[in-house]
Each structure stands twice: as C-alpha cells, then as structure tokens.
Amino acid sequence: xxxxLYKTELEVLKRIGDTVQxxxxxxxxxxxxxxxxxxxxxxxxxxxxxxTYKIPYNTVSSKLIHKFITLIRNKYISFNFxxxxxxxxxxxxxxxxxxxxxxxxxxxLPQLLQEDTGxxxxxxxxxxxxxxxxxxxxxxxxxxxxxxxxxxxxHLTNGKEIVIxxxxxxxxxxxxxxxxxxxxxxxxxxxxxxxxxxxxSEDTVMSCTFTMTGSKxxxxxxxxxxxxxxxxxxx
Length: 235
Known about the structure:
Elements (H helix, E strand, L loop, with lengths): L1 E4 L3 E8 L2 E8 L5 E7 L2 E7 L4 E7 L3 H12 L29 H11 L6 E6 L2 E2 L7 H10 L2 E2 L2 E5 L3 E6 L4 E2 L7 E8 L3 E8 L6 E8 L2 E8 L13
Antiparallel strand pairs: 1-2, 2-3, 4-5, 4-13, 5-6, 7-10, 8-9, 9-12, 10-11, 11-13, 14-15, 15-16
C-alpha cells in the first residue's frame, strides 16, 4: 500500500491480487495519524471515520515518512480552528517519583518540540516496575518474576493537536526488549470524548481513552501522577 499527495486530497493505492485499488480522501477526513517504528519495520496508520489505512515501510525511509506526515498535518486541521492555549509543563522530566523516562525518549523529545511552532510538553508518564507498586504479596512476587512494567509515554500539544509518543505497547515484561517507538497525532477538533478510569486489574494504574472520529486510543497513567491535570484543559 502507498499514498499520493495532492493539493486538497490524498490517494491511497492498495494492491489486491493483480489489480490496484485507488481511494481518494480529503485531508480533513483524517481523524488520527499513528506512526510506529521498531528497528527496520515501520507502519504508518491513517484513521478515517469508516476505515484505517496501514502503510508499511522500511525505517531506512523514516525521514521521508516524517516529511509525508508533516505535509498531512499542515492540511488536516480546519483553517478556522483556533489554537487552544494550554499551560506549559511545570514538572521535572527527571523526577522518578512517577516513573523513569529513558535516555532514548529524552533525546527524542527536543526533536518533537522543534517540529512546529508552539509545540510544548504537557504530561509525562515514566516507566514503572509494577512489582514496586503492588501491595498484595502474591501479585508482587509474580510481577517481580515477570518484571511487568508500565511503559513510558510523553504527551505534548501545540494547541491544535495532542501528540503522544510511547513504546508501541502499554506494558513490558522481562523477555521483551523495548526498541519500539510510536507517535500519535490527535487533532483536537476530532476528539469526541476523553475518559480516565482505574483499571480493574491494576488498582495503581489509570486507563485514559480518547474517543476520536471512528476510533479509540488508550494510554496509561499511574494513579496520583499530577501530570494528568494536563488533560483538564481539553473537553
């Protein structure tokens, strides 16, 4: 699958057997952009109200993909949408009280902040070993044995989008090496709902879900993480 860009539309080409299916859509119909990279494997997802397109690529071409994403982002938000003023992050990203942010993400953060004017940090959830938070003895032992971890995520905004970078999964375990990186671009005008609730299986973790036009996307925060107040700025 590949995509072609035009002034007001993009065209997605999908091979089905010996034929090529062509689908045209307006940039303004894109509800979410999601870019996943893991070593040499990359996947770009474009979410529409009625379907999702997955465009696989080799991460050797990641610079071209990022330019492609930038072109779409410059066109998929309404011209008359007024940017929302949101207070800048006042915490310390090095504070490990609510988890630890990897050097990898700390090094990537300046790149995200420089992507466009007005982008700033809003919230941080560091990586947390769940065995250290669990109070029930049996589960504490199980979590320490499996090294179950709540994985890190960084949340930014430019007043028009929420941009979230995480590891491409919510949880990590001893047998998993974390090479993945995933970035979500959520335009504010396409957010239909946002809800946080305690996980039934993990009483120290909150599940926060965005209901977008045609899709839902969930991220996790540690209960008591003050950075959750960032999302009080959005409907």
